[in-house]
Amino acid sequence: MTVLPDDGLELAGEFPDVPHEQWQRLVAGVLRKSGKDVEGAEAEEALSTALEDGLRTRPLYTARDSAPEPGLPGFAPFVRGGRAEGNTLGGWDVRQRHTVADHGPVLTDLENGVTSLWLGVGGSGIPVAELGRVLDGVHLDLAPVVLDAGPDAEPAARELLRLYEERGVAPDRARGNLGADPLGQEARSGQQGGFASAAGLARLCAEGYPGLRTLTVDALPYHEAGGSAAQELGCSLATAVAYLRELTGAGLSVEQACAQLEFRYAATADQFLTIAKLRAARRLWARVAEACGAPRAGAQLQHVVTSPVMMTRRDPWVNMLRSTIATLAAGAGGADAVTVLPFDHALGLPDAFARRIARNTSTILIEESHLARVIDPAGGSWYMERLTDELAHAGWEFFRRIERLGGQAAALRSGDLARDLAETWQARTGRLAKRREPITGVSEFPFLAEKPVVRESAPEQPSGGLPRVRRDEAYEALRARSDAHLAATGSRPRIFLAALGPAAAHTARLTFASNLFQAGGIEPVTEGTFEESGATEACLCSSDALYEEQAEAVAGQLKAAGAAHVFLAGRPGDHPGVDGYVFAGCDAVAVLSATLDRMGVS
């Protein structure tokens, strides 16, 4: 919290305190002018924004919005950071992911700002036998290595340990994570795995490799299945508790078991929610450690990855903006390591430019924006402290639900967890379809003439478990239909936008309709006549007043000219000849899909 200097100067001393109720009355007065007759708390509620997990963001936070004391960095409950110095000494660990057996890009990354490696090994990634070649030229005593090998976790870990020994890396100089994650692998693939090999590796690391951790508590499978922030927290907590039970059962102390875990979370372009999630995650894990009798072992090591769910395939350049916000949130939230996915991640293997932009995102925030120089910069904000507290409670409740189901493994195998995540994603899909959650370059401001970005196919990802979702998937399906039509006929499906009256009357709705139809790959035509447009459907665009005067007549003229369907851009009303309406909050995906169906676009 900010501590004011005791110099006798109070900047607001000459101003009287303003009661919260007075502010609410002022809000009510403004809302009344817009047609909402509400008073008191209802006026404040009218300006609130609903979030997932039953949370709400209110328009004003004050000292009345109390939250538990967050403590100090490096001390329980670790809300403000797991280390007293935070990331002030050199910034967070810049960790890049590689999945191809080519040591060239690995060395390029390390020579240009990357400080650790995250390697996808086994399966369709880097073959275990090729690990040594990929790490050729890498100073293993300086660059931490984190493995992600799925079912090949043990052979990959043994190979890395062999390389340490072969290259003369002292056990106390080895840094990184062997990446065992049996429950995460089950969530990805649906295949159950044992814990014996992970327990053996954990004992080995606890006894001889103090800088190596064995297990990753990966929350990305649940985030990528459409889970909310609280569900992501609850799943990570349930997974970590399951690992604690296994490790202590294998002979490790609680302190040793906690030291073998690294937590992985997603960072989205919702910067405040991401910051709150990371702070809440540390608080929750500290509570678990305290309950296990090891409060000093509750400092959570966090690896944060920019969200794959938010990455788009259309206009992928906008992904740079999303990733920058997410990285800022990860750094401000106190992440120990951050992986910025390249902007072309959703398209395949990244090229050299995409990898450079990804690593430089962290470099610029650390070296030029000096983001890491302040520990927990969001701490002390009434909004952030309250959001952290509310999210921690929501995450804890979901964790308790999983425990009541028998734990993380039981929740996965029964299908209960999958159903919870699917329900959350279904609700979010509705908001995406209605553009309540806009996607720049996809559902808002799409660019049909965009030149496609083509990349080499990436290794196939594990499947068979929880689904992988993307925010753009519904719109991507519509655009794919349009692309196929373009390839088959030489032109995209078209719609004629009939602007009524002067520009001042029609521009806003003309722009709205143009954006909406382009989101489905339908090309808007605004010049010439309907007959010249090559379109089969039309949309009226103007003001409500002009609709009353002209809509019926113009709709009749368009149908006489051959329009099979006439839309009106505006709220539904009584307009003879109009077949449908497009407006803010309408189900854009349903409207666009039905339009393509009528146009014969398969």
UniProtKB/TrEMBL annotation:
Quaternary organization: Heterodimer of an alpha and a beta chain.
Source superkingdom: Bacteria
Cited Pfam families: MM_CoA_mutase (PF01642)
Gene3D superfamilies assigned to the protein according to its UniProt record, in alphabetical order: 1.10.196.20, Cobalamin-binding domain, Methylmalonyl-CoA mutase
Protein name: methylmalonyl-CoA mutase
Domain Methylmalonyl-CoA mutase alpha/beta chain catalytic: 128-448
Cofactor(s) for this UniProt protein: adenosylcob(III)alamin
InterPro entries named in the record: Cbl-dep_enz_cat, Me-malonyl-CoA_mutase_sm_su_N, MeMalonylCoA_mutase_a/b_cat, MeMalonylCoA_mutase_a/b_site
Organism: Streptomyces iakyrus
Coiled-coil boundaries: none
EC number: 5.4.99.2
Keywords, in A-Z order: Cobalamin, Cobalt, Isomerase
Family the entry assigns: Belongs to the methylmalonyl-CoA mutase family.
